[in-house]
Amino acid sequence: MRIGVSLPANLLVRFDEIIARRGYSSRSEGIRDAIRNYIVDYEWLSGEKGEKVGVITLIYNHHQRGLVDTLTNLQHKFSKLIESSLHVHLDEDNCLEVVLVRGDAKDVKNIAEKTMALKGVKHVKLTITSPGEGL
What we know:
Layout: H1 9-22, H2 27-46, E1 51-61, H3 67-77, E2 82-89, E3 94-104, H4 105-116, E4 121-129
Antiparallel strand pairs: 1-3, 1-4, 2-3
């Protein structure tokens, strides 16, 4: 099936460089592989249950209209999950936030996914584990 996707030029240039280094035969192969990885990550996270501790790392454009307020409101809505957060100004346009969370896996996943969906958020990574796992 064919689809059309609009991407910022800098993102496509970086993607093309990576797929060339990795030896993909085409951009389509690289995109298929990226989609497969996205699906595997999503399905793994969907299977997580019970009490979790984690870190949500996000980078966003703080000039995006309304984004800072929306992020603040979202974090207030999920305040029972949030243990702490750290905010860093990366440059004139971008901020990094690290949010430490603790709670039910479903709720932790929910706040991460709501953050990912916001316009102006460039990157979100959720890392979770069970409290005391491996001890």
